[in-house]
Amino acid sequence: MAHLLQDRSFVRRCAARGLSPVYRGAIWRLWAQRASNEASDQLNPSLDSEMHKKDAEAEDVTASLRLTSLPEASRVVYERMAAAENPLAEEIHRDTNRTLMHHDRYADDTEAIESLERMLRAYAMHDSEVGYCQGMNFIAAFVLMHVPHTRAIHGRSVPHSQQHQQGDDGDEEEKVSSSTNDSSSSSATKTTRQEATAYWFMFTMMQGTRFNLRLLYTQGLPRLVVCKYQFQRLFEWFLPKLASHFERHNISPELFMTEWFMTMFTYRAIPVETSARIWDLFLVDGWKALHRVGLAILSLSQETLLSESFEGSIQYLKQFPDQGIFQPDLLIPHAMTFKVTNRLLHRLHQNFIGDTNNLPIPPRRVARASYANKKETHSQ
Fold first, then answer.
1. What predicted TM-score, i.e. pTM, was given to this entire model?
2. What sign has the CA pseudo-torsion 128, 129, 134, 135?
3. Does residue 300 sit in helix, strand or coil?
4. Element (DSSP H or E) covering residue 156
5. Which of 187-196, 255-264, 276-285 has the lowest mean pLDDT?
6. Exposed / middle / buried, residue 290 (Cβ in 10 Å: 0-12, 13-18, 19+)
7. Which of 1, 38, 46, 100 could form a disulfide with 106 if both were Cys (CB 3.0 to 4.6 A apart)?
């Protein structure tokens, strides 16, 4: 079964349908590691590649999807970076409490907040050029929920968040108990290992050559600037009627899409499971997945937005009172209908930096729609 993860068409189908929460964290780590070209090793030689290897010797299918334990050296490095004196600690503490106090996972969980702050402090020490920037807290919080250090129950890899939801079966509780050390020091080590596993996944996403999320937060926000340009053009091509409406009301896409991309669609207005489904796609398809989702959100909201003024549109796009559009089985299939390709995004990027010899070509269905609109206008 594990070899199927190397089949790109199979992986894409899995991502489109949504991964099981039981395996999601482990599979994300595997996909991210394969896509990153081991870029994180450049800044952290102790980040052993074994962190991302599947257990090939396991006969059970679910065991074959698990990754080996986090190397002790990587956990130690994480602890040292998280504990180091950090000038950004107060800003991280203040921002984390302000932005995540609404979140069910963190609202009343002091330990979870502390884990999150340690992750952000560690990254700020590891990458002094980025340090800390708003938006990173949402990503770190999201990663901490989905990429824990997993435990095995009856040969299954179960997320930490589900380990206390196994029911009242005494046998299962006994197996969980037998798999852990009851001492407080062992418990603290396991908690740190969960944090460290989540941290190194986030680090790989930030530093990996394919995703390189750090460019969203470095000086000048270079990735965000490019994404704004790309999304504006895609918006005009795929949803010309809504784009014209926004232009008449002086509504710039950056007023709403900045938060979408800076938080990678993990901010408060979007349900957690929907964000997870978006990340399933992102880890397979890269940045085109985020552009497709953004277009799908606008498309599903188009009827409402066309009747709104500037204030009404901005309020809607910030709060999304119609949460129905975020149903994963509605949003994700709709997003997949937008033919945004990596080649198209590359051409838009080249156009953005001034390469007039590499002008982007609108997708065929958009060109046909534009031609139909012009023909109708001309006939009138």
1. 0.78
2. negative
3. helix
4. strand 156-158
5. 187-196
6. buried
7. 100
